[in-house]
Task: inverse folding
């Protein structure tokens, strides 16, 4: 299992790599997915189905002039379980 220090190192390395620019969210999501896939493929299948939807909601909330409605919040919570 990677420590917070390990993950911070990975994020910093990604930020400094001009050929492969990814945000810290994307890097962390990829590392978490990699860990789950290696340790529990059944859980990975479940997460892999919903991660795209959760990404869209996060991008919408962070970069667009949108706010989450009560129903959007409920959907995000349901996708996490």
Result:
């Amino acid at each position: 299992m990677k420590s917070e220090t390990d993950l911070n190192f990975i994020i910093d390395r990604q930020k400094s790599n001009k050929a492969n620019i990814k945000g810290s969210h994307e890097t962390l999501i990829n590392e978490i997915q990699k860990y789950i896939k290696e340790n529990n493929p059944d859980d990975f299948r479940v997460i892999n189905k919903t991660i795209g939807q959760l990404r869209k909601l996060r991008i919408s909330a962070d970069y667009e002039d949108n706010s989450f409605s009560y129903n959007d919040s409920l959907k995000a919570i349901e996708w996490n379980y």
In short: The chain has four helices and no strands.
